[in-house]
């Protein structure tokens, strides 16, 4: 049996485990998991370069501080590119057999999930799709089983005055109305209004 390692990043609230060298997170393609790990490593390197840069600056070695600061920026850029590639693979994996009126945000970081949701809403509106089902999950794969995506999606729909019905692992957005802000713009399955 292989080693079991766990990596958790408080910035993105995801967990990856390594068993026999293969990274897995609830159905996420191994290439995407590998890209996430590469991004995480780049983040650690960027943070180290930043700390070293601050140290060098503090002790008067400003040219070395500048070199390290430039390195930090380059590492963060690479990290963003790796995460973007991973997000694309994850999104395509979970949505490959879905129609445009359903979007699955499993496996994405919160900011990525919101970007994909905004893009899908634009498609739905341009195609006159009247209802969008947004699968957010319940947080079963998040640290401490606390949902990260769903609360932010709910906040997004409230801020954009979208009429929504909430369920335990998904929400349904009604695109058939003008979506003017009203007291009842968000209802859960019990008919309770959530403001």
Tell me what the structure shows:
The protein is an alpha/beta fold. 47% of the residues lie in helices and 18% in strands. The strands form two sheets. It has a five-stranded mixed sheet. Strands 1-2-3 form a three-stranded antiparallel sheet, with helices on one face. Strand 1 and strand 2 form a beta hairpin. It starts with a strand and ends in a 7-residue tail after the last strand. This is Smr domain-containing protein. Residues 103-167 form the Smr domain. Pfam families: DUF1771, Smr.
The number of strands is 8
Span from first to last CA? 50 Å
Helix content: 40-55%
In total, the number of domains comes to 2
- Chain-averaged pLDDT: 83
Tell me, briefly, the overall form: elongated
Task: Tell me the series of helices and strands, N- to C-terminal.
Answer: EEEHHEHEHEEE
Class from secondary-structure proportions: alpha/beta
Question: How many helices?
Answer: 4
Query: What kind of sheet is the major sheet?
Result: 5 strands, mixed
Structural Rg: 20 Å
Indicate the proportion of strand residues.
15-25%
Largest beta sheet: strand ordering: 4-5-7-6-8
